[in-house]
Structures are given as C-alpha cells and as structure tokens.
Amino acid sequence: MFKLSLQKLIKDSYYAKHVPAFIQIPELGAIPEDTTKPIHEATLDDLAFAAQALDKEQSAIYKRLSAIRELYTEARSKGALGAENIVDALSRKGGAQ
C-alpha cells in the first residue's frame, strides 16, 4: 500500500509551515530520557506528550514575561526613565507600591 508523506497530507493546511521536522518527547515513567523523534514517525501519544512539554515551556516563558512586564510597569510608575537601572528605579520612593 502506498503511504503518503506527512508533507503531502498537510501541505494545504494553515499550520503546515509551523510543523517541526522533529519533536521532543519528555522523559516519562519507564522512559528515563527525553527522546527526539522525526515528526513523520510520531504516534498520537508522542504528539500529546510533546505538546504537554511545550505547554510547560510556554507557561514558564509567560511567567517570566509577566514578571519582566511587572518590573517595568512598577519602575515606570515611580517615574523611572528608559536608561535607568531597574534596581535604582525600584528603590525610588513614590509611585504605586
């Protein structure tokens, strides 16, 4: 039986250009190490676990982004200007606490 390639199957979809060539599957219970697998060899479980790992990364990045934005907003609320050091800016009195 002829087996189509993944690229042919998804070439017209909106996400085709974002599908990675490889996925990273995190260590799981009986599997002690991360595994990298070509996307065309992935099972649905592989995709689910890879997506779960990416969700964790996204969450961590979002938390760091939020913290940086909070620092920026706090410094600006105290009147800090662009070239001012963040520690000096937050050491100012006044503004929102």
Number of DSSP helical runs: 3
Percent helix range: 40-55%
List the uncertain runs: none
Which structural class matches the secondary elements? mainly alpha
Q: Between the first and last Cα atoms, what is the distance in angstroms?
A: 68 Å
β content, as a range? 5-15%
Radius of gyration: 22 Å
Strand arrangement, major sheet: 1-2
Order of helices and strands: HEEHH
Number of DSSP strand runs: 2
Dominant shape: elongated
Structure summarized in a few sentences:
By secondary structure, the chain is mainly alpha-helical. It is 46% helix and 8% strand. It contains 3 helices and 2 strands.
What would you say this structure looks like, in words?
This protein is mostly helical and 97 residues long. It contains three helices and two strands, in the order αββαα. It has helices at residues 6-10, 44-77, 86-91; strands at 22-25, 35-38. It has a two-stranded antiparallel sheet with strand order 1-2. The longest helix has 34 residues, at 44-77. The model has no long low-confidence stretch (mean pLDDT 90).
Short descriptors:
single chain, 97 residues, mainly alpha
